[in-house]
Each structure stands twice: as structure tokens, then as C-alpha cells.
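>> received
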Amino acid sequence: MRKDVIYFILLLLVTDIAVLMDIPLLRGVLILSTFIVALGYLFLESLGLSESFLDVFLLSIGLGVGLSIFIGLVVNSFYFMVYKPLSLFPLLLAFNIVFLVLLILARNKISFDFNILSSLKNEKLTSPMIMSFLLPLMGIIGSYIMRTYHSPLFNIFLMMLVIVYAISLITIFRGSISSLTYTTAIFNISLSMALVVSLYSEYIWVFNDAMLEYYLGNLTLKMGYWSISNYAGAYNSCLSITIFPAIYSLLSGLSVNCIFKLMQCGLFLLPIIVFNIFREYGGRRALIAAILFASQQPFLWDMPTHLRTAMAVFFFALAVMVLLNNRIMGWKKALLFLIFSILIIFSHYSTAYITFFIFLFSSILLFFKEENNSNLTIGFSVLFFTVLFLWFGQVTRVPFIAGVEFFRNTIASLTKFFVMDYRGGTVTTAFGVGVKYVSQFVRIISHYLSLGFIAIGIVDALRKRYSEHLNANLICLSFVGLFILFLSVVLPYVTKGYDVGRLFYLILICTAIFFVFGGEFIAEKFFRVFNRGSLVQWRVLILSSVLFLQFIAGTSLVYSLGDAPGRAFPEFSEKTVLDAGTVYKSDVYSALWVLHFGDEKKVVLFDNIGDHKFLFSVCSFGKGFSTGNFKMSFFTEEIFTAKKFRILNYTSPSGINNYYGYLSRYNVLNKKIILDSSLENDTLLNTINRIAKSNVIYDNGYSKILSK
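>> returned
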């Protein structure tokens, strides 16, 4: 028996022992290493795919996550016969069987020869690469300082260091470093940025959809099986936030909160995938494209608070990477492309719908190309829609109904074509509506410049320069993506259902390289007009300047350093209103006091964010959690109850004379309560206290419970 096979068997054996003996820390590390990385790697090797280290690394993680979802879905299908199929022993048995089967298939193909050491020996200058390893450490330190001392200065310094370091690689060191340094740099840059986000607080943010995602992950875990009837909402169709976190919470022994935090940290892979997609056009260009991708608002804010969308974007990026990878050929490419495409459907319904239209229109364009051997065919688009319809239209149903309703509303709103209120907030802001800060204008200008560079790059590529070198799939995907982006802005109501910022972030996976091409084209024009310096200097100057502007704008540093610190992301401002969505221990303790010692006859009142924090506390720490009397007031018309407490908002306390008032840390320290989801409409807490004439019945120094 080969030594490689023995090593994998020992790894599986040690993992099983760690799980069964519940060895802290080691159990979690081994589960993630064995049933994600090693499992995905064995699947790759069973296909006989031994590509570059970066290809294998990214595909192994993607396949490991995807196989986990498929395994969980198969095990869950036995819930009619097995009580709580999503429990430790059925899952551990299923993962062991799949692992051993893949090991048997790959036993003669396993190879770890990636020539990393030889690449390192050929490196001309190693100091820039070594320097990058300080960035993740600084990300951890910055998060600790922010959590302990509530000072964002170190995080702001880190972000400025990141962009200066990246620009130095493409300017000062561009002739002295190889592709390995670029790869290491984007790895550590992405990881440091992700750590700043995921380690900002001990608990997940409860903004926007994050709380319901967390609730559904906990619901699946505690029910022991997944079913659309557990929660008849579209979110429950997303296996990426239901089955996946429940599986790894059971196997690793970590809480769902920890799994969600790890998923947030795992977003650092997205810029690395973008880098890998475009590295055949040169390490410098690929690094610029990856930094552009990482400097968008969704990377630091939208994706961590919308993990189902983030997972879908992750699988979309892997699908594009496989499609454009010339090192993977034939049926193997078709299989991997199909797997990642199906995983998009299982991850998020809206992203799946958009992906379908991108695939469909791109396949139609490719159909008219001579000698078309692309895996993206009209037949594949039909297959993708078939799976989409079966999952959303027949199995889960709710997302398909929501999709039909969305298209109906879009068509009906065409009569309001020129009414700005029928478009999302990002679109109206892009047209200057509601813009009152200089920093907001800087953000708008930076986004227009980036989009303009991309458009110019695509036109120039099609016209002459790179058409013979560019992949036809890339050109079609990029062109169709920008066309869909244009339609989403022009048509009313579309951006109400799917934010245009997230749509741009999705298509940037395909179009980021055209930002570089567009910058190079503009640099040539400036060089010819001014006839000073060299063409290389003009390229470096223009691309670096716009990239720096985009980075400080997209990461909200322009707010922290400018005139609107209250609009910055929580990691970069101690005064931001977005901190209202952060859960602190004091918030949890107040909620638990109500659950354990409160009078069940009283109504519990919150502001617009407080109900999310209370729900988080119940999901995470509440004893006697029962889904039978656990409803969501802000997503259904039913009154949310926990241990028979009725929960309403502060906005509707009329006629209620006997209640508890839940005040979070944010409410107490800022002396404000949030009255609507926009976070713009607030009022002084003192006014509420005076009107309510309430007494403080519980006070832990930060969070309070009022009683009347």
C-alpha cells in the first residue's frame, strides 16, 4: 500500500477519534482539514487532475464545501426513516464512507509535487513576499484593539498599509518579483482584510438578513433535519446557510455562531480566485484585478452579512475559474463546471436567477462563434434552468413564486420608468440623490472611474488588442454581465430586489481584468498627448491612482478619514451608526435575564435592531429552545414569541401598559434608538424614557431592561 494512502487513512482515523472523544480545538481543526480540504483534494485526484498548487488549493476547498452540502442533502433525505438524520453519527458515517470511496478511486493518482520550493529558489527578491505575512498578524491585532479599546486607528493604518504595499508591488518591485510573490501577496492581503471583518466582534452582526440566516442554521441544527416546512420562506431553500453550518457545527463541536464567523473569514478566498482566473495575463495585472475586487463594499460589508449570497458568489467564481482554465480539459472540465453551477442554485436563489441569464445569453453569443468548443452551451443553460426549476419550483417552491412575482412587478413598474423611487438606494445615490457629504461624492466618482475603465477595456479588447489572446468565454460573460448591469439600472424595480452593488460585484469576477486593459489604453493616450516619461510610467501612474481611490472609497476609509465617520464600516469608525448591529455580551445577558426571570404576562419592546439581538440571544443561549412557539415578527405577520413572551417594536407600543423595554449597548451609550431599517431615522432615548415613564429593572452597566 502506498504511503500516501496510509497517511490519508491515518488522518481519517485521527479525525474520528478526535470527534468521538470530543477533543477541544483539535476536533475542529481536523474536521475542517479532513472533510473539506482533504475530501475535495481526493475528489480532484480521483479525476486525475494535478494542476498548479493554486488551482488544486482553491478547487479542493470548493469541492470539499460542495461535497459536504451534497452529502448533507443525501443524509437528510432519510429523515422519513431516521430520527434526526442530521446528527453526529449518521453524518460521521456518511463522510467516512465518501472519504474512503474517493481514497480508493484516487489511490494510484495522488501526487503532492507542486514544485513550490523550486519556485521559491528562483525568486529574485523575497523581502516583499516575506513582508506580506505581517498583514494577517496585523489584522488580528487590529481586531483585538478595536474590540478591547474601541479604537479603529490600527485598522485604518492596516488598510492604508495594504493598498500602499499592493501599489509598491506593481510599481517599485514590478521587475524584481515573480508570480509566486504576487500569489502570496494577494493571499495575505485578502486574509488580513477578512480577519478584520470576522474578528471585529465575538458574535455575528445581526444586520439585514444575517439574523434570519443564523436563525435558520440554528433551526436546522436543533431540528436534526432540514425541510422547507420548518420555515416556509425563500431563505430556507439556501442549503449554504441551513444544512452546511448545521453539519459542521455537529462534526466540529463548534457553535453555529463560530461556523458563521469561519464562513465570514473564508471570504478571503474570493480575491484569490479572481487572481487565479487572470494570472495567465501576468501576475501584475492579476494582482490589480484582485485588489479591485477586494476593494468593493460587498467584500467588507455585504458578503459577511449575506452569507448565502457570499456562498453563491464563491461557487460562481469557481465555475468561471474552471470554465476559463485551459489546464482542465474535456469531460473533467464539464463535470466540475456542472458541480459548481448546481451549487450556485443550492446557495442562493437570486444569484442563481442572474447566473442563468448570464449563462443563457453568453451561450447564445458563443453559439455563433466558429469552432466553438466551450462547455457553456445552450444545452448546458437549459440543463441549469431545469435543475433551478426542480429545486425552486418543485422542491422548495417559495423562491420560484418569489421570482415570478419579481418579474411581474418589474413589468408592471415599466409605467414608472422615470420615477426614481422605483429603483434601489445604490442607484439613486449614484445619480446624486441624497448625497450630502464630500466623501460620498468621492465614492461615486471612484465607482464611475472603475466602471469606465472596464467599459473602455472591453471595447479596446474587442476592437484590436487582446481579441486573439482572450478567452471567448471571458469576453461573452463580461459583455453579457455589463449588459445585465445596464438593464438593472435602467429598468425600474429590478434593483429593489437585488442590489446593483452586489450585481456589479458578481460580474466583476469576469470583468476585473478589463479594468487593467482600460487603464493601459488610457495611459497610451496620455503618453501620446503629453509625450513625457515612458509608457510604463504612465500605466503605473494611472492604474495606481484609480486603484488607490477605489480602495479607500470601497472600504469606507474615505468616510473614516473624511466628513462622514458615521457612515463608515464598524471596523473603521467608533462613531458609525452601523455598530447598532453589533451584538455584545451585555446585550445577551439582558435578553437572558428577561427569558429566565421576567414576567411572562408582559410584552417585550425593542427598537428596529433590538429584536435581532434578542433573537440571537435566544438562538444561541436560551434554554428550552422550542421551534413550536418561536416565530419571527419581522418576516411574518405572526407575533414572535420566546418562552411565551410577545415581542413587538418600539414603533407600535400603543395600548400596551405592561411591558419590558429591551435597550442594547448601542442604545444606552449613544442615547438613541433606531426607528427604521435605514438607520437614518432615530430619536433620543431620553425622550422614549420620559414618555414611557419606565423604571430600570435590570442594568449590567451597558444594556438595560426597562419595566412598566
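>> The mean pLDDT is 85.
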